[in-house]
From TrEMBL:
Protein name: Leucine-rich repeat-containing protein 47
Pfam families in alphabetical order: LRR_4, LRR_8
Gene Ontology biological process: phenylalanyl-tRNA aminoacylation
Location of the region described as Disordered in the Swiss-Prot/TrEMBL record: 260-300, 513-548
Keywords tagged on the record: Coiled coil, Leucine-rich repeat, Phosphoprotein, Repeat
Compositionally skewed regions (Basic and acidic residues) per UniProt: 270-281
């Protein structure tokens, strides 16, 4: 009788066992009630599926602890995703050891500390000897376990964004502790200092410590041999020149400033020898230029190859686009930024395909598979402002999704769920593709976010889809861009920066590589009812660089008070050398 009750309550487990599945996703509206009935833990039956390689349980506000038996019952687990639950304040019992685990995502929970016995796993021997990616963002951690490096010695990516950390444990930066760590993100914490020993992270490529309480940056940071990207914005540095640089300069310039003696913090062992190294490099560059008869890499990017981004301020725009925000989005997806970009050329060859592919890549990488943020692009001519960003019950939200017929959000989500289940049956695996991968992001929401135009039409339903009404085509040259997030305003701005700079790169590529228009170009023009015209095609009849115009978009509340304007002076500050931003 008890076994039958468990099967009835957890049919996914019975199915996974019967079909010997290696992947399992538990999510959806009914999950919270079932976990509550199980005492706030996962059912013990789950830990009798030893073939599982991937397990995800997300969006469950009643899940306070995984429960005993996970480590013993799932020895082959490669990926464990327990995000947006209620895990905390610690983990009892601890998760490990999980000898095969490579990805661990505990983001968006209520973890406050991970002490021995209530944390990740043992340090001797390592509880996670193969772990490569650890995501602890969006918790309430006040400190990290001192033995983290010994517990996961092969860690490559560590995300600590959005916690309450005021320091890193010294053991994290001891020589040889984390030889493979390439990404460290700890933005939006309370960090007060950064140890010079960070130079011992020999593989570090990306460091994000924005929006903390740092007053100094150690000069030793410049000794990290592979460091390519740093972000210290939002820290009040004592060195005001350095503070200005971190807001507007490229990583290379900041590291050179630290290396040659900038007042980045402390005396720094690398200053004198760093200055000598820089002089030596400069002489080598000069000798190489004389041999090649050139003027150096930066001079190679001449005016003909340089692309301009001109920012049009609201005060200069006779008809600026505005987004009004309703208060109900605060509990659903509170952050949004918008921008208008004019002068994009998507007609030649595969330009449109490259543009769409770049959005997909941003969603996968910077947007963290749409969990951190979601971007959308629209044909500006089809957008009727002012826009309203609001939240509506699923049964009241109507949209014509891309490539589909008009549907209410409730019906659309149900249809996608059925399609996802059909995918699983056909492929005999738990993972799905396309929009189906993002359905779990709506779990637990009574209202869904949407962007509505002045005609009352929903043009965007983040994080799921856009409207067919504003679909971008090959003939599109002017676009409205929006980025939304449930996480932070800064990630919206970062994604928007990346998208616009990528658009500039693409326009430069299109300019320099004269692609032949294919048959599909003509077909696309005919379908949209517009044939190629020099007045609507930015590249037609032009030999020089084609500037993109970025128009500011204001986001205001319903009373008209300004919430954010993009791009502000602090945005688009890290443009590549061949892109000039004119404000």
């Amino acid at each position: 009788m008890a076994a039958a009750a468990v099967s009835e309550a957890w049919p996914e487990l019975e199915l996974a066992e019967r079909e010997r599945r290696r992947e399992l996703l538990l999510t959806g509206p009914g999950l919270e009630e079932r976990v509550r009935a199980a005492g706030g833990q996962l059912p013990p039956r789950l830990f009798t599926l030893p073939l599982l390689h991937y397990l995800e349980v997300s969006g469950c506000g009643s899940l306070r602890a995984p429960g005993p038996g996970l480590a013993q019952g799932l020895p082959q687990l490669h990926s464990l995703v327990l995000r947006r639950n209620a895990l905390g304040p610690g983990l009892s019992p601890e998760l490990g050891p999980l000898p095969a685990l490579r990805v661990l995502d505990l983001s968006g929970n209520a973890l406050e500390a991970l002490p021995p016995g209530q944390g990740l796993g043992p340090a001797e021997p390592p509880g996670f000897p193969q772990l490569q990616s650890l995501n602890l963002s969006g918790n309430r951690l006040r400190e990290l376990p001192a033995d983290l490096a010994r517990c996961a010695p092969r860690l490559q990516s560590l995300n600590l964004t959005g916690n309450c950390l005021d320091s890193f444990p010294a053991e994290l930066f001891r020589p040889g502790a984390l030889p493979l760590l390439s990404e460290l993100a700890a933005a939006d914490n309370c960090l007060r200092e950064l140890s010079p020993d960070i130079a011992h992270l020999a593989s570090l490529k990306t460091l994000d410590l924005s929006n903390n309480q740092l007053s100094e940056i150690p000069a030793e940071l410049a000794d990290c041999p592979k460091l390519k990207e740093i972000n210290f914005r939002g820290n009040k540095l004592r060195d005001k020149r350095l503070e200005k640089m971190v807001s507007g300069c490229q990583t290379r310039s900041i590291l050179e400033y630290l290396r040659v003696g900038g007042r980045g913090g402390g005396k720094g062992k690398g200053r004198a020898e760093g200055s000598e190294k820089e002089d030596s490099r400069k002489k080598r560059r000069e000798r190489k230029q004389r041999r090649e008869g050139g003027d150096g890499e930066e001079q190679d990017v001449g005016d003909a190859g340089r692309l301009l981004l001109r920012v049009l301020h609201v005060s200069e725009n006779p008809a600026p686009l505005t987004v009004r925000v309703s208060p109900e989005v605060r509990d659903v997806r509170p952050y949004i930024v918008g921008a208008v970009v004019r002068g994009m050329d998507l007609q030649p060859g595969n330009a449109l395909k490259r543009f769409l592919t770049s959005q997909t890549k941003l969603h996968e990488d910077l947007c963290e598979k749409r969990t951190a943020a979601t971007l959308a692009t629209h044909e500006l001519r089809a957008v009727k402002g002012p826009l309203l960003y609001c939240a509506r019950p699923p049964q009241d939200l109507k949209i014509v999704p891309l490539g589909r017929k008009e549907a209410k959000a409730k019906e659309l989500v149900r249809q996608l769920q059925l399609e996802a289940e059909e995918q699983r049956k056909q492929k005999k695996r738990q993972s799905v593709s396309g929009l189906h991968r993002y359905l779990h992001l709506l779990d637990g929401n009574e209202n869904y976010p949407c962007l509505v135009d002045a005609d009352g039409d929903v043009i965007s339903f983040p994080p799921i889809t856009n409207s067919e009404k504003t679909k971008v085509k090959k003939t599109t040259s002017d676009l409205f861009l929006e980025v939304t997030s449930a996480t932070s305003l800064q990630i919206c701005k970062d994604v928007m920066d990346a998208l616009i700079l990528k658009m500039a790169e693409m326009n430069k590529y299109t300019l320099e590589n004269k692609e032949e228009g294919s048959l599909s170009d003509t077909e696309a023009d005919a379908v949209s009812g517009q044939l190629s015209d020099p007045r609507t095609n930015p590249s037609a009849g032009k030999d020089g660089p084609s500037p993109l115009v970025v128009e500011q978009v204001r986001v205001v509340d319903l009373e008209g008070s300004l919430k954010v304007v993009y791009p502000s002076k602090a945005d688009l500050a890290t443009a590549p050398p061949h892109v000039t931003v004119v404000r």
